[in-house]
Amino acid sequence: MPFWRRSPRAAARPRVEPKIEASATFLSSDAEAWNALLPGGLAGTVSPATAMRHAAVYRCVSIIAFAAAMLPLKTYRELDDGDREPSLDHPAADLLRIRPNPRLSRTLWLRTTLAQMLLRGNAVTWIERKASGDPVALWPIPFERVAVSLAGDRLRYRLTLDTGTAIVVDQDDVLHVPGSAEWDGLTAMTPIRAMSAAVGLGIEADRFAQSYFENDAAPSGYISYPQVYKGDKDELRGFWRRTFGKSGRNAGPAVLDQGGTYNRIPISAQDAQLLDTRRFQIEDIARIFGVPRFLLGMDETSWGSGIEALGIGFVTYTLDPHLVAIEDEVNHKLYGRGRPARPGRNPPRFLGEFDRDVLVRGNIESRFKAYRLALGGSSGPGWMTPNEVRRKQNDRARPDGDSLAAWKAPTTPPEPAADAPPDPAPE
After folding, report:
1. Is the Cβ–Cβ distance between 377 and 364 less than 8 Å?
2. How far, in Å, CA of 325 to CA of 335, rounded?
3. Contact at 8 Å (CB) between 35 and 51?
4. Per-residue confidence (pLDDT) for residue 92, from 0 to 100
5. CA 201 from centre of chain
6. 66 and 110 in contact (C-beta within 8 Å)?
7. What is the reported pTM?
8. Is the pLDDT of residue 220 over 50?
9. Tally of CB atoms within 10 A around 164
10. Which of 126, 285, 328, 409 sits between 20 and 30 A of 418, alpha carbons compared?
11. CA distance 318 to 359
12. Average pLDDT over every residue of 242-271
């Protein structure tokens, strides 16, 4: 490998080529496989698959993953004067901008990465490289098909590919993004372990509610007669259940002889305290994921200026930590290797960064007001050119739009001279 394609540490050691191994049935990190193998399963274990059956968990994971996938992951070149400019010269630029591999879109790769971070605590992507070291494809690997080990001071990843082939690769060829604050030295702990009580209680509340309505936890009504009913009560109950029960709900109106009257008992899930329990569990799950209530449909809030501030808070405190973790891995593993440089000059440096303006640019009125201030003019020196503003609006550049507006001091009308004659009086 040429010296200019290696990082400082990579230059001192030979490149570790992927080593192919026979695939295994399942790995020790696959909790669902152990749950199916052991008699009775793992008691008290809430797996990522079972957690996703809860509506609140599914919504929280979806809203974070879908929001992250909306953001373009752009490549920039760092210039000698400290500035940077958008660039497509690096081999990883199109992988992150358009398609990471022939089978997967950029959007689906980001959604998969965020879902693995939120549910498994770890998102792993294998970097397929050329012999020169340039990346040619990014392949996400579900974490249940990943085994991490320590070889000296280097991490080794055993990955089971979609074809069933197992390979062992060095840490430089893997994007390993943690999604949890807990780290055991090799992997991050799954967030589901921390939220197992809240998710488990929510699943049980849903299960009880379903059983409540299916099995009639309380009678829906009663049949009364003006006098003593002399028939067989058990036969009447069986007739009513067969005719107007679950299998006969569309059988038509009830017909009662001998003066019988059907009276409905007004009872709801609120009387059984189901709604409060389920609402509390949704709030608890949303609190763990950091998703605002309005994104889960819990508040009847109009979509006004207050929602805009809440959305910015969601991007800043919930989404941004995950985006920074992805950027750190991308910049170290994909952009850490330089490109050929001219003699006497350092090789250019590249970095990747999400364009967060897609989610926080605000409404059209406030956005245009900010553009007006950025262009300068009479309000002060401009710091954005007209073409930069047009690109943010996805408009084509103009030939005369690459210069900053010069600042002009506001002019005031001149004061009249002290000895000037007075204005003539009107006739």
Report:
1. no
2. 15
3. no
4. 94
5. 24
6. no
7. 0.68
8. yes
9. 10
10. 409
11. 13
12. 54
Residues 6+ apart with CB under 8 A from 412: none
Task: Let me know: does 182 contact 191? Beta carbons within 8 Å.
Answer: no
Could you tell me the two tokens for 307? 């929602």
Please provide the size of the chain in residues: 427
Per residue in 117-143, pLDDT tens?
A: 999 999 999 999 999 889 999 999 999
- Is the per-residue pLDDT at 249 higher than 80? no
CA separation for the pair 100, 80 (Å, rounded)? 29
Asked whether the beta carbons of 121 and 189 are under 8 A apart, the reply is yes
Residue at token pair 């990579």? 10
253 has a pLDDT exceeding 80: no
Task: Check if the beta carbon of residue 126 is closer than 8 Å to that of residue 169.
Answer: yes
- What is d(CA 196, CA 45) in angstroms, rounded to the nearest whole number? 7
φ/ψ of 26, rounded to 5, equals: -155, 165
Q: How many CB atoms lie within 10 A of CB 34?
A: 16
Per-residue pLDDT band for 383 (boundaries 50, 70, 90) equals confident
80-114 confidence digits (pLDDT tens): 777 788 899 999 999 999 999 999 999 999 999 99
Q: What is the 3-state secondary structure (H, E, C) of the chain?
A: CCHHHCCCCHHHCCCCCCEEECCCCCCCCCHHHHHHHCCCCCCCCCCHHHHCCCHHHHHHHHHHHHHHHCCCEEEEEECCCCCEEECCCCHHHHHHHCCCECCECHHHHHHHHHHHHHHCCEEEEEEEECCCCCEEEEEEECHHHEEEEEECCEEEEEEECCCCCEEEEEHHHEEEEECCCCECCCCECCHHHHCHHHHHHHHHHHHHHHHHHHCCCCCCEEEECCCCCCCCHHHHHHHHHHHHCHHHCCCCCCCCCCCCEEEECCCCCCCCCHHHHHHHHHHHHHHHHCCCHHHHCCCCCCCCHHHHHHHHHHHHHHHHHHHHHHHHHHHHHCCCCCCCCCCCCCCCEEEEEECCHHHHCCCHHHHHHHHHHHHCHHHCCCCCCHHHHHHHCCCCCCCCCCCCCCCCCCCCCCCCCCCCCCCCCCC
CA within 13 Å, CB half, 267:
16
Characterise 288 by phi-psi region: left (phi > 0), alpha (psi -120 to 50), beta (else). Answer: alpha
Please give the pLDDT value at position 203.
60
The amino acid sitting at 114 is L
Strand partners, 155: 150
